[in-house]
Fold UTP--glucose-1-phosphate uridylyltransferase.
Amino acid sequence: MTQRIRKAVFPVAGLGTRFLPATKTVPKEMLPIIDKPLIQYAVDEAVEAGCDTLIFVTNRYKHAVADYFDKAYELEQKLERAGKLEQLELVRNVLPSHVRAVFVTQAEALGLGHAVLCAKPIIGNEPFAVLLPDDLIWNRGPGALSQMADAAEASGASQIAVQDVPREQTGSYGIVATEAFNGREGRISAIVEKPEPDVAPSNLAVVGRYILSPRIFDLLERTTPGAGGEIQLTDGIASLLADDPVHAYRFRGTRFDCGTHIGLIEATIRYALDHEKLSDAAQQLMQNALKELGVTELE
Ligand code: UTP
């Protein structure tokens, strides 16, 4: 795999049960951090990494995702007439003009592996990226996917983003065992979905960025439902290990698990504190809120 990735898959057909009742009508990927939905952060990261074809795997309830990336003629005209050019740029730039969006339907939520398989006809026979938008990764320098795309191009291996997690949390992640790391990369020797801490092969957890060889599709087609009755991407990757080098990649950046309540709150606070216009006000109101609640442990 020495080819640079051009295509990125966004599996957004999950049910988002952890954010009910909001996700009855608002897809989880459309929940905002400040003023951008989670999906936009992931799209920006993929475009920055060089992707020009974005494949959204959706379901019939997720019109909001397709609508968001569609052209909003009336809104654009109104903003233009009102001279609101800054906002007009924001609306126009959700997708740069050289990037195309393709929507594929996953008729039933049969698992992440199945969702990725739905993108097979569009990907064809080239390496591609998978981004899970609820893992939001913030970095001052190049984004996580861009770092991984460079590594994939240089090493020719598939790349899976990983981060160290406390051992008691292994049951919430795919966990990898690796050979010794060389810089940020280590060849994966085993991968297990959500192992209990006492049987986990390490505390290196998979987070939602992958660069995969197209061989994964044949393997996913042969994968039977695993944990939770779903076709797991982890099981497909476990089969890929036998044929192909797959590297764990320790990215530079901070990851927020926006698939959980506390992760979404943490991301909102961190982005607000880093925001050009909101930072001072956000700091002040956080201090006030803590004072009101009688929290006195702040230095
Ligand atoms: P999650 O495990 O976070 O599931 O899926 P979920 O349904 O989105 O959320 P909860 O757990 O019910 O709150 C991981 C990613 O895989 C996608 C999801 O959209 C999410 O981006 N996915 C999952 C699919 O696209 N299809 C599926 O069948 C399952």
In short: The chain has eleven helices and 13 strands. The chain has two domains: 7-259, 260-292.
